[in-house]
What we know:
- The chain is an alpha+beta fold.
- The protein has one domain: HIT family, subunit A (2-Layer Sandwich), CATH 3.30.428.
- It is about 20% helix and about 20% strand.
- The protein is built from 2 helices and 5 strands.
- It has helices at about 5-10, 60-75, and strands at about 20-25, 25-30, 40-45, 80-85, 100-105.
- It has a 5-stranded antiparallel sheet, covered by helices on one side.
- A hairpin with a 7-residue loop joins strand 2 (about 25-30) and strand 3 (about 40-45).
- The radius of gyration is 14 Å and the shape is globular.
- About 25% of the residues are buried.
- The mean pLDDT is about 95.
- It binds guanosine-5'-monophosphate (5GP) and zinc ion.
- Zinc ion binds near residues 4, 6, 8 and 98.
Amino acid sequence: MSKPTCIFCKIVNSEIPSAKVYEDPDFIAIRDIQPQAKTHLLVIPKAHFDHLDSPGAESVTVKIIAVANEVARLEGLTAHGYRVVVNTREWGGQTVAHLHMHVLGGEQLRGRFA
Ligand code: 5GP
Ligand code: ZN
């Protein structure tokens, strides 16, 4: 197979370093390189899907929420709360075309999104 060019595939394959906080057979979670909150994590399926509604993505869209909750728990965000965001395509603010879920917390969040 040809080498992936997608930046998150490269992170999944450890071709690009990242601050990994969680890994299971299907997902990783890393710290966002440009955090928009005190805690800002990205939950990334190891399988590549461009968007939330890409064909086949439903195989990970339910579990990604469970992983986000688990990562939030591991990061101590559960008691005070947190925000999950999936930006989708251009107008949704998606800049990396590999489905991922933001987990934001560690402080009072206001009208900001990732
Ligand atoms: P999007 O804008 O697609 O919803 O989210 C992409 C996120 O990936 C952004 O918040 C951006 O800061 C983050 N990001 C982009 N490149 C890298 C990288 O190389 N490493 C990490 N850890 N985060 C990245
Ligand atoms: Zn990818």
